[in-house]
Amino acid sequence: MSRKEPQPDRARIEDFLRERGADRIPHPGGTLLAHLARVEAVLDGWGADPAVRTAGLCHAAYGTDGFDEALLGTGERARLAALVGERAEALVYFYASCDRSAVYPQLGQGSPLVFRDRFTGAEGVPAEADLRALMEITAANELDLVEHNADLATRYGPGLADLFTRSRGLLSAPAQAACTRLLGAYAPRPVSGPLVGGLDHLVLTVADVEESVAFYARVLGMRPVTFGGGRRALAFGTVKINLHEAGRELLPHAARPTPGSADLCLVTPHPQLRILEHLAACGVPVEAGPVPRTGALGPFTSTYLRDPDGNLVEISTYPQEGTAAGS
């Protein structure tokens, strides 16, 4: 069983911060010392454990990536540890050493986060408890700034709203609620109406790229395209089909890219009888059709076939004015 650290003497910690000039350093909302005390109080209100609360009181001791003025150098870590406890000091250093430009963009991305120490350049995957403490202190710190400086709130509010939305899973419920209350006005509003207006391209995973190029060019009249250092695609109208070879897919790609798993619907201006004649001339068997179906714009008539990988390809004709569907 590990030895429990004794509770630090808060009065001695505040005296130390005063000795180091924290009460004389200007800061939004008064002095740095006043800000540190407010951060501690916020963390206490959120139910943070004693080490996190104490780290919040001392979080700017070594300076931070956003506040250069340090109260003591990193060579004095042992002195601060003797005052606040080893766990709290470790969190103070962790907070101070965070290279925000390297760490913040990774939050909410799903992969293990790689922490970068801005003092030493060292990198590593932090313990979840440390990461949670870091973000809890970060939220308490940044929300205090937002509350006490309107210019900072306007300037940094949108970025902070994004940061704490992405790192929401690392924050306590009270911290989440505070972020929503103070930064909700800066959160991006949902787009009204459709977010997208068309299809640019889709990707097919195929067993043989050149065989697929030949099939879609010969049977469907698509235009072969070579781009991006030899990548292959097929163009028609304003849309493109990019081709990935199975086992050599480009990142990022679908979760389970598999040849033959696609179901495409392509619109043609030609009547279905003409489609049947064309497929027969190309030696391509019809899977089904012509049959009535419903597309994005309403009823149409479709004929189905399969490409070399077994993907289902639906070729559909919308009715023309004065012409019966399927004619």
Tell me what the structure shows.
The chain has 327 residues and is an alpha+beta fold. The chain has helices spanning 10-19, 32-45, 50-57, 77-84, 86-97, 100-103, 128-148, 150-166, 173-183, 209-220, 272-282, and strands spanning 26-27, 30-31, 115-116, 123-124, 201-206, 223-227, 231-236, 239-245, 263-267, 288-295, 298-306, 312-317. A 4-stranded mixed sheet has the order 5-8-7-6, with helices on one face. Strands 9-12-11-10 form a 4-stranded mixed sheet, covered by helices on one side. A hairpin with a 3-residue loop joins strand 6 (223-227) and strand 7. Helix 2 (32-45) crosses helix 7, helix 3 crosses helix 7 (128-148) and helix 4 crosses helix 5 (86-97). The longest helix is centred in the middle third of the chain and has 21 residues, at 128-148. It is elongated. The model is unreliable at 322-327 (pLDDT under 50).
The Cα radius of gyration reads: 31 Å
Count of alpha/pi helices: 11
Mean pLDDT: 91
The biggest sheet amounts to: 4 strands, mixed
Helix-residue proportion: 25-40%
- Helix-strand string: HEEHHHHHEEHHHEHEEEEHEEE
Number of strands: 12
Structural class: alpha+beta
C-alpha geometry = elongated
Strand order, largest beta sheet = 5-8-7-6
Q: Classify the beta-strand content into a percent band.
A: 15-25%
Q: Termini separation (Å)? A: 83 Å
